[in-house]
Amino acid sequence: MFFFMAALISSLLDSFIRGVILRDSTPVVGASGAISGIAAVAALLSPFSLRFNHKNIPFPVFLVAWIMVYSDITNVFTEDGIARWAHLGGFISVIFAAYFLKPTERKQLHSGFILNLIFIILALILAFFYSSR
């Protein structure tokens, strides 16, 4: 469900922003927006491990997802042929997909969001103190 929801929302967001607002008529093909949505879900539901063959493997999934978001935000207006608005739409799609989850899954998604938010705030504080040296 997350994959199809992310694919739909990311393509709509990219089409709207690039087509209507930026007046860009370049067609977009691919599933990278949906993959970004899956990365966002993974970062929220299981931020510290990957599940593979019914085993949890320690891995900083949240860090990979935030690097992807940072890369897309900082390069959103470059003309490199990458549909960065679709990627950002994939990340945003998790908000809409949460409405279709069971209450326990929604609570887990919310907890993952809070955890990721704390990480980002701590990283910004650390960057602030490091840059003021």
TrEMBL record:
It is a multi-pass membrane protein. Pfam families: Rhomboid. GO terms for molecular function: serine-type endopeptidase activity. It comes from the Bacteria. InterPro entries: Peptidase_S54_rhomboid_dom, Rhomboid-like_sf. It is found in: Membrane. This is Peptidase, S54 family. Keywords: Membrane, Transmembrane, Transmembrane helix. It comes from Leptospira weilii str. 2006001855. Residues 3-101 form the Peptidase S54 rhomboid domain. The keyword tRNA-binding does not apply. The chain crosses the membrane at residues 29-50, 57-76, 82-101, 113-131. GO terms for cellular component: membrane.
